[in-house]
Amino acid sequence: MRNPIKFAAIGLDHRHIYGMAGHMIDAGATFVGWWTEGEPETLDGFAKRFPDAPRVTDRQMLLDDPEIDLILTAAIPSDRAEIAITAMVHGKDVMADKPGCTTMTQLDAIKATVAETGRIWSVDFSERFEVPCVTKAAELVQAGAIGKVIQTVGLGPHRLNRATRPQWFFEREKYGGILIDIASHQIDQFLYFTGSTDADVTMASAANYANPSDPGLQDFGELSLRSSTAHGYVRVDWFNPDALPTWGDGRLTILGTDGYIELRKYVDVARSDGTDHLYLVNGERCEYIHAADAGRPYFANLSNDIRNRTEGAMSQAHCFKVMELAIRAQELADGA
Predict the structure, then answer these.
(1) How far is CA 278 from CA 40, 205, 289, 336, in A?
(2) pLDDT, tens digit, for every residue of 150-171?
(3) What predicted TM-score, i.e. pTM, was given to this entire model?
(4) Which residues partner with 235 through β-bridges?
(5) Is 105 exposed, middle or buried (0-12, 13-18, 19+ CB in 10 A)?
(6) Are strands 30-35 and 70-73 parallel, antiparallel or unpaired?
(7) pLDDT category, 272, cuts 50, 70, 90?
(8) What is the pLDDT of residues 19-56, one digit of tens each?
(9) Residues in Cβ contact with 142 at an 8 Å cutoff, skipping those fewer than 6 apart
(10) Backbone angles phi, psi at 52, to 5 degrees
(11) How far is 333 from 121, CA to CA, in rounded Å?
């Protein structure tokens, strides 16, 4: 039996670390320790979920430990690149929360470090990797259920939850902008489902419509993508209404030449309970599929990639391209 992957966490500033660590444990990995700067508000929830993982007083202890294979980071977004680069230089592979970086300079430095060290830099695009109905949609697309995919429409509304947000959430230079922060999810799904390796950002905009007291916050963003074979549209925002029984009504529509799939990932408004609702329409089928049991293979695949130096979870080129397009879209929206 193969020894389990051992991982540690550096930076716990976003709650996404709960899913990142939990799913790695579910995939058979061992959580051996963590470090974070200060006392972020995520700590209580983290300690309840992972009481057996020890906190260390110096992150260098984790970086120097030769038995640790993987470093997870959900630090402040603008800090994630430095953590990833340092970890890779110390011989560790990295799984970063999205966005994995916030500037093109950071992305270029990450690319250079990957080339120099041969380490894996993976970004957990959780709206694909942690959502079973997306796994099911991928199976259907690969089986030819809707023909050739020619467009995706990704919607990512989020609840602001102002009272629980740390100060960095409202600082543009810290979170990177709404298209970098949130829309990287939908860009990932566009490239993945259309099989595109590159794309042009044909339109991008971002605005602050409802939060004038926080000038650094962008509460609305949209963008369009065009590759050589497909088109994509993305809308993200912080306007999820309080009456919705979850943090966001995330949706994805995948249009093919022979049909379409719609995913209602987290809620089917005023209808079915639970998550992972999939609707399939093609020449022979017009049906609803509850896809909550379709699995989250990214985490086991990443473990295998760490062992075998493969790209089963996600190609490195794809990961780089998602963040490149998100940054380019943000720059276009900001007039940079």
Answers:
(1) 36, 29, 5, 38
(2) 999 999 999 999 999 999 999 9
(3) 0.97
(4) 155, 222
(5) exposed
(6) unpaired
(7) confident
(8) 999 999 999 999 999 999 999 999 999 999 999 999 99
(9) none
(10) -90, -5
(11) 27
